[in-house]
UniProtKB/TrEMBL annotation:
A family per Pfam: SFXNs
InterPro entries (alphabetical): Mtc
GO biological process, one term: serine import into mitochondrion
Gene name tied to this protein: LOC109100563
Family recorded in the similarity comment: Belongs to the sideroflexin family.
Name of the protein described by the UniProt record: Sidoreflexin
């Protein structure tokens, strides 16, 4: 061992208490920090080496605890927690705010014509498909054919849903038309996320004990994880897509106020992303009794004292 930093700092877990909403919010404010998108490959690699070496008991000379935690959050923002692979740039949670600010603004602005709805829903769902794949739970491999089929199913289903809602909105008051993007996004998340993560539903995701020891794979844990992610994603869209339509409808002809409202949308997105991620901890849990009977039996035979298992739900 070199350096003065002790080796008992648990960087496998977040820095803040994940049993509280505020602790989860602080954690996700760090993970979704848009500034992480601008970090160079050299900075990311340095963070990876720092974190992985610390886990092996190797401490860089002069490394402080704050620097270690900073490296841990840079690492978490760019590398998949299960596979350790560097994630696609636009699929990282730190890219959510700038990407969603652009796409949401266009969806709220260009919603009147069918071609515009189709195009921006396709852009949005293509982006969501990348995010859902990048932030999937587990380390099971997926073939290009499976990925392609999931992408086509997810984006087609989402676009068809958006068109159906737009057609329905024609028979409703004009203000309802402004809610089409939000309704379409909410419905599409219910389609896109399960499709892009369907392999998890078929093969299961890793479940562990409190110390991180792998106990097996569970499809029921995958179901719970995907439901939690769907709820979080819909929650992210509420501040920017469900509230502003009411304001925009009333102030449509006032250009100054309209500009201010778009700025407010951006402000909402900055805070909505980490706060909605914080609805559920990334490391979720469930009772052993809720798992598949065969997995329950295996756990009880090898670890009879374990009553709760843990898993990465994805983001």
């Amino acid at each position: 061992m070199s350096g003065d930093l002790p080796l008992n700092i648990n960087i496998k877990e977040p820095r803040w208490d994940q049993g509280t909403f505020m602790g989860r919010a602080q954690h996700f404010f760090m993970v979704t920090d848009p500034r992480n998108v601008l970090l160079s490959s050299e900075v990311l690699e340095d963070a990876r080496v720092t974190v992985e070496n610390y886990r092996l008991g190797i401490v860089k000379p002069g490394l402080t605890e704050d620097e270690l935690w900073r490296a841990k959050y840079i690492y978490d923002s760019a590398f998949h927690p299960d596979t350790g692979e560097k994630m696609l740039l636009v699929g990282r949670m730190s890219a959510q705010v700038p990407m969603n600010m652009t796409i949401t603004g266009c969806m709220l602005t260009f919603y009147r014509t069918t071609p515009a709805v189709v195009f921006w829903q396709w852009v949005n769902q293509s982006f969501n498909a990348i995010v859902n794949y990048t932030n999937r739970s587990g380390d099971a491999a997926i073939t290009m054919n499976q990925l392609g089929a999931a992408y086509v199913s997810a984006t087609t289903g989402a676009v068809v849903t958006a068109l159906g809602l737009k057609s329905l909105a024609k028979h409703l008051p004009p203000i309802m038309g402004r809610f089409v993007p939000f309704a379409a996004v909410a419905a599409a998340n219910c389609i896109n996320i399960p499709f892009m993560r369907q392999r998890e539903l078929k093969c299961g995701i890793p479940v562990t004990d409190a110390e991180g020891k792998r106990l097996g794979e569970s499809s029921k844990a995958a179901q719970q994880a995907i439901v939690q992610v769907v709820v979080s994603r819909i929650g992210m869209a509420v501040p920017a897509m469900a509230i502003p339509p009411v304001i925009m409808n009333a102030l449509e002809k006032k250009a100054f106020m309209k500009v201010r409202n778009h700025k407010q949308n951006n402000f909402n997105l900055v805070f909505a992303t980490p706060l909605c991620c914080a609805l559920f901890p990334q490391k979720s849990s469930m009772k052993v009794s809720s798992l598949e009977p065969e997995l329950q039996e295996n756990i009880r035979q090898s670890n009879p004292n374990i009553t709760t298992v843990y898993f990465n739900k994805g983001l």
